Structure formats: C-alpha cells, structure tokens
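User: Structure tokens for both sequences below?

Assistant:
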Amino acid sequence: VPVQDRVAAPLPRTPRHAIVIVVDGLRRDAAESMTSVGRIAAQGHCRVADQGTYTVSRPEYALLSTGLEVDRSGARNNDLAAPLAAESVWEVAREHGLRVGGSSHLSWFRELFLRGFDRYHVADSLDDDVFAVPALADVDVFHPVYVDEVAHEHGAASESYRAAVARVDRELGRLLDERVDFSQDVVIFTADHGHRDAGGHGGAQPE
C-alpha cells in the first residue's frame, strides 16, 4: 500500500543551555503538584519514568547519566564511590566542546564521572539553594537532595515532605524566571526515585 513516510519535523538546533534537574526522592504525585513542573510540562512532554525496582540513588544517577539499567552500569550501592567505566552524557558533551556544570548537595555525580564536569559545586549545607549558581554552562545538572532527606526522616505523607517539595518548587521557579528562555533552552526534569508514605524508596510501589 503506498504511504507517505515523509516526516515534516524541523531539524533540531543546538539549544543555548541544556538544563537537567534531578530532584532526589521526589515522587510523581508531588512533582505533579509543583507550579514549576507545570510550566516545564506546558513547553514539551510529560512522561512517567519507571526506574525499575532497585531504587538506590547512586545506581539511579548512573542510569540517568548513561542509559544503562542498574544491573548493567557497575554502580551497585551508595557506598562504593569508584568512578564508572560506562560513558556518560556529561562526558560526551565535554568531548564535543561543551562546558558542563553540576550543582548538588552531594558529590556523587562527580564521583561517578570524574571527566564529566568542567565545574561541580557541592553545597555546604542542605539549606543552600543549589540552583543559585553564578552562571549557566552549556549543560548543567542540578541535584537538590533535601526532599529525599526529609522523606527518610518523616515519610512522604508528612507536612515536612510537602514543605520540602514547596521549597524546591520556589527555588526552581526562580531559576526558570531568571535564567531560562524556553524558546532557546532545553529543560529536563526528573527524579531518581520516589518514596513510600512512611518513608523509604520502595521498589515497584506506585508511589
């Protein structure tokens, strides 16, 4: 049967900035409550991410950075700080002449990918705003951790968890207001895993 296979999609152009946001421990229903996430989703696509059943943070950072499932990347737990042999998107970007920055409450992304970042800021305290960097690089990963910390201590059904989600919403909102132009920039927003109501990453539970 004759068909028209021509795809009338515009050729992609290099964005001014590519911004990757990984909110540690943010579950789906909490993400959907955030004003800033609604702003991002309105500019593109929203998909449910199934991270698999082994929802340990460092292996999930490896998954997000390399595309390799957690049983294939070499990252096995949160205690092994050895760098991965697997190639990451951060390293590929640098090899192609782009500047890559990171800002987090943890050094784990940098530990996994020693050649992946031109600069990587580790916040002194969970009170610090990791989005408040002096300038954006060509590619940036922002990784706030306090949502996860609060969930472990109080559970994801707690008022403390809702307050932490509201905080990341405010901080991300300022980044979008002051630094992002959706006509020129690409923003990717995700999490490494969710949390159970009582706290804990869980596995295949919907939350």
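Moving on to the next sequence.
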Amino acid sequence: MTVDCRPRILLSRCIEHEHCRFNGGTVSSREIAELKPFVDYVTVCPEVAVGLSIPREAIRMVLVDGEEHLAGSVNGHDITRDMLDFSERYLRELHDIDGAVLKSRSPTCGIKDVKIYPSPGKVASLGRKTTGLFGSAVIKQFNTIPVEDEGRLTNFRIREHFYTRIFTHRRFADLKKSPTMGKLVDFHTNYKYLFMVYSQKELKIAGQIVANHDKRSLGSVLDEYEAALSRLFEKIPRYSSVINVLMHLMGYFSRDLSPQEKSFFLDQLELFREGKIPQSSPVLILKSWVVRFQNDYLKKQYFFEPFPSELVSILDSGRGR
C-alpha cells in the first residue's frame, strides 16, 4: 500500500527544529526526525511568540491565590495573560491539523507532568502535576485529534496508536474535501479490520451511519461518522483484540493452508500474546498470504499498513508515562 496522504502535525519548535529553548538549546527526538519525511510540521514556540528572548530565564507554573500562573522562575514576572491571549488567537486561526506533539513537562506546552511550585525562587515543587497553558488550550481546541509529547512517543504502543490516528484523520479530512457516499463506503470498508481491532461496538455503529437508512444529508452523515471515529480511537487496543482479528483474517485462507502453515501461524500468535515478538510478525505472514492467494479485498485493508511501513519500529523506551 503506497503512502496516500501527508498529515499536518502541530509541533513544539524546539523539538528537532530550532534552538529556542530557555537555554538556547533544542530537543532531540528520533521519532520526530523519522516522521518528518511523511508529514508536514507546523511549528510553534509560544514563549518566543509572547516576546521572551533566546536564551531567557526559565519559567514555571506557580500558585497565586490558589490559581496556576505562568511566571519567571527567578524574577516572578507573570506572563499568564499574554500566554492565554496568544494561545486563543493562534489556535483560532490554526486549521487542518491532524495531530500535535508538544514538549514534555514544559510549563507552556506540556500535556501532563508539569510541576507546580509554590512561588518563584529556589523552592521545591508541590509534588502535584498539571498541564501547560498552551498544551491545555491545544487539547481543548482540538479534542478530536491525538495530542502527545515527544517523551510518550518513545513508547512503542503509544507511538503506533498515534501514527495510526494521524494518518486515519488525514485520509478522512481529504475525503471531506470532495465527499460522496461512495467514497465514505470505500473508506469504511477498507478500515473494517483496523476498526475491529479498536472496538467492535464502534465499528458496528460506524457501519450503521454509513448505511444511512434514514436518508440523511451527506453532511450530517459525515459529521456523525467523524464523531464515531473519535470515539473509536479513544483507547489503545488490547492484545486480545488484535489476536481476535488476526484469527479472523486467517480464516480467509484456512482451506488453502497446510497443517504446518496453520500450526506455524498459531505459534506466532502465541509468541505475540506472550510479548516475545511484535505484532508485525504475524501480520507479515498474513500479508504474504494476501499476495500468494491474490485476495483483492484484503489488499485494500488499512489493518495491514495504517501508516507507512518505514515508520514501523519495535524500539521502545518501556515507559508509557
């Protein structure tokens, strides 16, 4: 399956792009570098955008009368209102985004794990965590697209879930540019087994929306289907759901396979269940059967390649955070 779309990703500019951190540095990310040939990045540094220099005093989240404020870590200069105004203005004008990757733990961009301090100066954090001001605004504004930080993408399962979502979102966004019911039917058909991995319940609901028994307008159908997509991708699928679909797909070929081939495939499934091999191993066996037996229906299934195969990597930090 060829690369058929290019997602647009909002990205903290300090990650693999410009030296704009408070200390004049940048942030390395293997995942962001490897993703670059397949997406279009829209980069932003909110701190520079509100007038802070490079380098600059580090800022932190502090409590002021029980409320979270963004302020200089030494001089205590409060930039909360500037950041909120910038976030509202910038995100209101930002369109056609399929996902976001923001700087982890940043008091501006962090989507979680942002430390809260009782005041500026040399004081210990309160031991509580929050979300950065800009990060919080992104999550609120774009509540149907995936928002991650570069640290979480080092986790194999989180990364593949993110990649699957951004490429699916872009394909659906491209469909909406010149939509027809026929295109929507094809989209849903080609995603059947990938959606089955995520949620059989939501797959059924999405199928009912596409069937459109009530003869609603195309616009209404698309809106309802998009909402179903968002619900479908809320959680990373369980291993048991993946195995169920792999077994289902093997059924397409069971009458043509030798006992030894079936046994080998089932052994691979057990190794996958035990976490000893990646999902790609049994999937590759199925793909070889799709080619061998020339199954045109399965050739179009995004289950086999929801995102470019060049991005498949089993490297994993082991931390999901």
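User: Anything stand out in the second?

Assistant: The mean pLDDT is 95.
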